[in-house]
Amino acid sequence: MSDSEFFREVDEAVRHEQYKRLWDRYGLFAIIGAGLIITGVAGYKGWSYWSEKQAGDAGAQFTQALTLAKAGEAAKAREAFTQLAEKGPTGYRVLAKFQLAAAEAKAGETDKAVADYDALSNDASVDEILKGYATIQAATLKIGNADYVEMERRLKTVTEGTSPWRFSARELLGLSAYKHDNMPEAEKQFTALAGDESTPSNMRERADMMLALIAGAMKAPAAAAN
């Protein structure tokens, strides 16, 4: 046996003895630790499978509810959306709540629909874009009986900054001002829309039309006075 082989065997024996001592002292804990790691991995895999299955089941349920709604089965559709809104995964829960609010608005239950949209717009778990959409929907339902001050309060969060809903918010504010004969404010809102190159073209066309109506409305009192 060469010296190198001898020293290697001694080294292995020493390490083996060290490992044995470590096992005698910590072996049980090592087994438990390994078990916890395996359990953790299995738990994660199980949770991933459960989440995917839940999302798949919720997607199928959501699609079925939409089909029922399109077929005129309003009661059955509402029941399905209600189940999703209460027990579905977060994403589908939010979408189901939007569908329920829309169904209420369609059925003439305006106050309930507004309350539901308001709840969505104030829900911290809802995506910012969807919160803005809920704000616009609630304001659209309120435009018939809310004064301009309320409309301005409702739409404040989406008229400022770069919200993708700022154009719709300005249009609603302009319409509210026009409805309440506040022509200077209506003119301000529609002028801002018409002059902004990022305003959608169809909305810019409506703004130009409203500016023409506003100009006529503002000239009428002057003409009557003369």
Biggest sheet character:
none
SS field, number of helical segments: 9
Strand pairing plus helix content: what structural class? Answer: mainly alpha
Percentage of residues in helical conformation: over 70%
Rg to the nearest angstrom? 32 Å
By DSSP, the count of extended strands is 0
Distance between the termini: 125 Å
Summarize the helix and strand pattern as letters.
HHHHHHHHH
Strand content: under 5%
Average pLDDT over all residues: 79
- Report the uncertain regions: 1-7, 26-32, 34-41, 43-51
Molecular shape: elongated
Task: Explain the overall architecture.
It is built from nine helices and no strands. The chain has 226 residues and is an all-alpha fold. Helix 3 (90-106) packs antiparallel against helix 4. The chain has helices at residues 3-70, 74-87, 90-106, 110-121, 128-142, 148-159, 166-179, 183-195, 201-225. Helix content is 84%, strand content 0%.
Q: In brief, what are we looking at here?
A:
It is built from nine helices and no strands.
Question: How are the SSEs placed, and which strands pair?
Answer:
Elements: H1 3-70, H2 74-87, H3 90-106, H4 110-121, H5 128-142, H6 148-159, H7 166-179, H8 183-195, H9 201-225
